[in-house]
Amino acid sequence: MSEHSVIRVESLSKTYDSGFQALKNVDLQIRRGEIFALLGPNGAGKTTLISVICGLVNASTGQVLVAGHDNVREYRRARSLIGLVPQELTSEAFSTVWDTVSFSRGLFGKPRDPAHIERVLRSLSLWDKRRNRLITLSGGMKRRVLIAKALAHEPEILFLDEPTAGVDVELRRDMWEVVRGLRERGVTIILTTHYIEEAEEMADRIGVIRAGELVLVEEKRELMRQLGRKELTLQLREPLERLPEALDGRRLTLSEDGQALIYTYETRRNGDDQTGIAELLADLDAAGIRFKDLHTRQSSLEEIFVSLVREEA
Ligand SMILES: Nc1ncnc2c1ncn2[C@@H]1O[C@H](COP(=O)(O)OP(=O)(O)OP(=O)(O)O)[C@@H](O)[C@H]1O
Ligand SMILES: [Mg+2]
User: Fold this and answer.
1) How confident is the model at residue 1 (pLDDT cuts 50, 70, 90)?
2) Residue 267: is its pLDDT beyond 70?
3) Which residues, 6+ apart, have CB-to-CB distance to 278 below 8 Å?
4) Fewer CB atoms inside 10 A, N or C side of the chain?
5) Shared-domain flag, residues 105 and 249
6) Do residue 243 and residue 175 come from a single domain?
7) In angstroms, what is the span from residue 160 Cα to ligand 1's centroid?
8) Ligand 1 pocket at CB < 6 A
9) Which residues does the UniProt record annotate as the domain ABC transporter (predicted)?
């Protein structure tokens, strides 16, 4: 296997006992140290995929390797490398923050390490709450406790299933900080989210899942390049029959009715006017082409995402 892939998912399918197929032949490799965001609408299969990788739900076909360990045959080994922050809040309502988090570490057979637990609680601003019973905490605090629990055994890979669903903007920012800090320490992070902005801000790569199929896996930067693509439409005073030769070799097309010129350009180049618009307008002027109106249009990651998930399978 590639030494960079810390997780390898191969031809994974999952059909629940109900007969519902939640995952369809998913192949995915997660690189060591990256932040991978899994985007998809409700019911797409995000939680199912995570649950199968973590060994909580068994696959119908296919396999998962975690750092080279088969997650079924070498379950304990594979699971010990993983921390999971589940989507649902589970309540051990009456234990304290400290006990809950320490207990989690013990579950993985790790020796007690109060200094580590303290570091984790401090990094999540939970230190002052360590003696509180969970039942006395706000929803956002409980979510932090879930993260603390997942980090208690020092996992190399952290799964966060909708970590910021329903939390306020400030807490969301805090969580992003925590996640970045973990990445700096070399932890690989896979998160699911409905928030495009979260994927944009955090992820190195983005995967889009729709109706159990992984329909796209792409570098965030590449998606942003597409996001940065704009279209300029110039409504002409006089229709043209074809593009003048002087304007050949540009990203310029003539509309079918000859009434408009359409120019595509990228907005996220370094430098100021890398769009070429100023030049284009000068050349149009020189060629005696006049226009009466113009407008621009931008494709966004949101649009790309929406069009991907809306197309019915
Ligand atoms: N235990 C189960 N038995 C039968 N069907 C299930 C089970 N768990 C999930 N499903 C179905 O599998 C599909 C995928 O569910 P899953 O929870 O993985 O989606 P999700 O992408 O995490 O959605 P959300 O964004 O709402 O969390 C859904 O149609 C769901 O109803
Ligand atoms: Mg889910």
Assistant:
1) very low
2) no
3) none
4) C
5) no
6) no
7) 16
8) 16, 18, 20, 22, 40, 42-48, 87
9) 7-236
